[in-house]
Design a protein that fits this description.
Structural class: mainly alpha
Distance between the termini: 40 Å
Number of helices: 14
Largest sheet: 2 strands, antiparallel
Number of domains: 2
Strand order of the largest sheet: 1-2
Order of helices and strands: HHEHEEEHHHHHHHHHHH
């Protein structure tokens, strides 16, 4: 078969695969949502919950609406529009469950979005395999026939060389795009996972600090005042609850991060290998075609046939990965609009603490902090600031001088917030202020200089204040953990700082991978076309030179 006649067919063959592997895959998700019947869209608009698509009977929700009881038994669907895809597990009906990585139907629908790329890989493998088999049969059948004269077209030769150069350049550009963006994508994933782990570990560390502070309450004492039994029992209960819940965010975040890394690392290695092999194959094919080494070209065509098939399969897999990343980012944005709703996102990665546990822990920390302050102030009032006679026994410390200021208790008796008075000192400067009232003591522990606090009493008071401040400062953390505002801030940071880069780099990585696969596919065909044109050109020049030589010899005779 003459190559000049087969060239238009080969070009159409390339255009078919290029369009099917890029435009169809990228437009599949956008087109599916527009296939929703008009009546269904109108019904959704008329629904009171149009802006908050809900599934009844799946948990709690605090989304506002007219029917409060119905809302309390419903859950928010995350990324409902973005995940509206065909589900092959449900007779190709549209999937309506939203973002939920634990749902097999979600994975089936998102995987089906890459079906055009998988179909392209199969069609390419079958058609080029059939073409190679027919070419071998033609060569075997025609090898015994008399050799026909070749036609030679300079335009076809120049075009084949131009297209081969362009396809090789496209492979190079695709490999560069693929390498740069997959590195950026991997770094973005790593930074985001590190951020989530830091947040999870901060929860764990704050819990441990609260436990240490509560445990040290029984150890610190001022003038050997015992801890009340009811407060001690409450601290023990809170310790048990914290032990049961403190490891949850840390362990869940670490487990989810490990699962993502287990998928990410092989994918990153595969992309690097694909880029390197495809680039090496393209340059070898261009070199062997330019040199006219036929046997090496046939070997490279077979390798390219297999590698392009694998590359399109990898394109489909990465398109699924890109869609999952985009779905997750949209799900984060949806959850941020309804953070109190019971959605799958809020129950993973950084789960909110049970509100009852948070409130009981907060109550215990306030009571304990207030109790320690009251103990210290009681010692100041009844011992340090009193001018006791030597007959007072152990309470006599020869204390004298100006009175020691009281420590400000930030809580009233009902644990509500109160403002400090001017005569009180606060947590920020209490140690420095009380240092002014410390005296030097004798061997018996009696003050020898002006002052009202012995070094031992000062150390005990500052130790109690440190524990009290530690418990007081944990209050905001417990409030944020109880009302999920801590998780809300975390996901807001992810949405603003990490999601744009993740979506951008995952999309560009996918585009670079498609560029490489499609360009190597075109190069595989153009290797054969250019090699054939080069062989025809070389044979035609020999015929012309031989005819010119015979004509010259005939003229001399």
């Amino acid at each position: 078969m003459d190559s000049t006649k087969s060239l238009p067919f080969l070009l159409l063959f390339q255009i078919f695969f290029l369009t099917s592997s890029t435009l169809l895959s990228l437009s599949l998700e956008a087109s599916e949502f527009h296939h929703i019947p008009y009546e269904q869209l109108e019904g959704m608009k008329n629904n009171e919950q149009y802006h908050h698509i809900l599934i009844p009977g799946k948990g709690r929700s605090f989304i506002e609406g007219k029917n409060e009881s119905a809302n309390n038994n419903s859950t928010l669907i995350l990324a409902a529009e973005k995940t509206h895809r065909r589900d092959p597990l449900q007779n190709f009906n549209y999937y309506t469950g939203g973002w939920d990585y634990r749902n097999s139907h979600y994975w089936a629908s998102v995987s089906f979005s890459a079906a055009p790329l998988f179909i392209t890989a199969v069609v390419w493998f079958l058609l080029l395999g059939l073409f190679l088999c027919l070419a071998c049969l033609c060569c075997c059948c025609c090898c015994c026939r008399k050799r026909k004269s070749y036609g030679y077209s300079p335009i076809a030769y120049a075009l084949s060389l131009i297209f081969l150069t362009l396809s090789t350049t496209a492979v190079t550009a695709g490999c560069i795009v693929l390498h740069i963006n997959q590195e950026n994508f991997s770094n973005s994933i790593s930074h985001m996972l590190e951020f989530i782990l830091q947040k999870a570990l901060s929860i764990f560390e704050n819990f441990m600090n609260i436990m240490k502070a509560l445990a040290s309450v029984s150890k610190v004492s001022v003038d050997h005042l015992p801890l009340p039994p009811d407060l001690k029992n409450e601290i023990d209960v809170v310790d048990e609850m914290i032990n049961a819940t403190a490891n949850v965010p840390q362990l869940q975040s670490v487990a989810n991060a490990k699962n993502i890394q287990q998928v990410l690392n092989p994918a990153r290695l595969a992309l690097n290998i694909v880029a390197a092999v495809m680039l090496f194959l393209a340059f070898l094919g261009f070199l062997f075609s330019f040199l006219g080494i036929q046997c090496c070209i046939y070997v490279l065509v077979i390798l390219g046939w297999i590698l392009v098939t694998l590359a399109f399969i990898l394109c489909g897999i990465f398109l699924i990965f890109h869609n999952v990343v985009a779905d997750t980012c949209v799900a984060v944005d949806d959850w941020l609009q309804n953070p109190t709703a019971n959605a799958s996102l809020s129950l993973q990665f950084l789960p909110c603490m049970d509100n009852k546990t948070a409130q009981e822990t907060l109550k215990a920390t306030k009571e304990t902090s207030s109790y320690l302050i009251n103990v210290v102030n009681k010692y100041i009032i009844e011992v340090a600031n009193r001018d006791l006679p030597p007959t007072a026994g152990v309470l006599y410390l020869n204390q004298k001088g100006p009175p020691v200021p009281l420590l400000c208790n930030p809580f009233n008796s009902d644990l509500t917030e109160r403002d400090c008075t001017h005569a009180e000192v606060n947590f920020s400067n209490v140690a420095q202020e009380w240092r002014k009232y410390e005296c030097e003591v004798s061997a018996e522990g009696i003050c020898n200089t002006t002052g009202r606090l012995t070094p031992t009493a000062y150390d005990q008071m500052t130790a109690s204040v440190n524990v009290s401040y530690s418990l007081y400062s944990s209050g905001q953390f417990l409030v944020e953990l109880g009302d999920c505002s801590f998780v809300l801030k975390t996901f807001s940071a992810i949405s603003e700082n990490y999601c744009p880069g993740l979506r951008r780099y995952s999309y560009r990585t996918y585009v670079g991978l498609v560029m490489v696969a499609a360009s190597v596919m075109c190069s595989s065909i153009l290797w054969m076309v250019y090699a054939r044109k080069r062989r025809h050109r070389k044979y035609t020049k020999k015929i012309i030179a031989r005819n010119d030589q015979n004509h010259f010899a005939g003229g001399i005779a």
